[in-house]
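pinging the channel bc i need a second pair of eyes. not urgent but kinda urgent?? the chain im working w is below, pasted from the shared doc
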Amino acid sequence: DSKILHYLFRDSKTAEFICLDGGFSGNVVLKAESKDQYGQKQTPTVVKIGERDPISRERAAFERVQEVLGNSAPAIVDFAEFGARGGIKYRYAAMIDGKVKTFQKYFSECDDVPLLTRFLGIVFNKQLGRFYEAAVQESLNLLDYYDFKPKYADSVKRKSTELATVNPDGSLTIAPGIVIEDVSLFYSRDLLTLKESVANPRYISWLHGDLNGANIMIDEAQNVWLIDFFHTHRGHALKDLIKLENDILFIFTKIQNEEDLRLATQATDYLYGVTDLANPPGTIPPALYADARFHKSLLVILYLRSLYKHIIELDRDPYQFFVAAARYAMHTLSFDECNLWQRKWALYAGAKAL
């Protein structure tokens, strides 16, 4: 990796690097502050280093969309490959020198909901909104798109039974009085016969593809930037919004015990009580409103839900939400960032969605 850094900063006299959160698993993401041969500060950059082939694919994917994103997103100014490793050097034209935080870090430290939603408004309206504005309806099998396959049944079964007690009737108890169906049966049984109609096309657009709180960065002047375009593609137009909602719930919202889990299941029931995607859920239940964690998380999620109607227009079928929500909830069962109780919550949500 040192060879890649030397090459990417070959026109610099000095360069200092700060490790940032985020980026595709296994990659190194660095914020760089460098000076040229005359000792003058150069424009701040972010460097991403990882395995050569994924880095090359990310570069190719980003080059397809950078003209649309414009100055609100980075520009690739250089790249390098040495052996099995590759690196991309991104320039952020208006990034202010100083400390940069991820949205996930901001969320953990800040209770200012209007500020948090302002950041997300920039992401989804001014940045990715350029993609969503061009969304068109195309036939899309959502079960295939979100990678629901019978081959995952054994893995889902193993993870589920690690988090819950199996009852004589086959149901699962994740805590006293909280019983769910065995979600692995959806993979091993239901997917074999379930046929999804594609008569009603879904809205398709370009997407970030892996929008989580670590891929949104905020500088000292509260400028908002996106990183990690490895998964950029044309797909289900609500994907980025639903992915971020999943992370706000099961990763950002910290729960620690059985009492917290009961509140968490109430939050899921509240959010999943949707019949029309153009109309977000109603008033937050009192118990959740009174808890600072859930109050903040739910208000931010309600803002995300309010953006749906501008993207999907008349395609307001909640089925598309539940397919995506189930996909990400089940994937969260193995997240290292989640403790036991957060994974139990994700299992509950996955079962309810399915």
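so The mean pLDDT is 90. and The two ends are 43 Å apart (CA to CA). — does that match what u expected or am i reading it wrong
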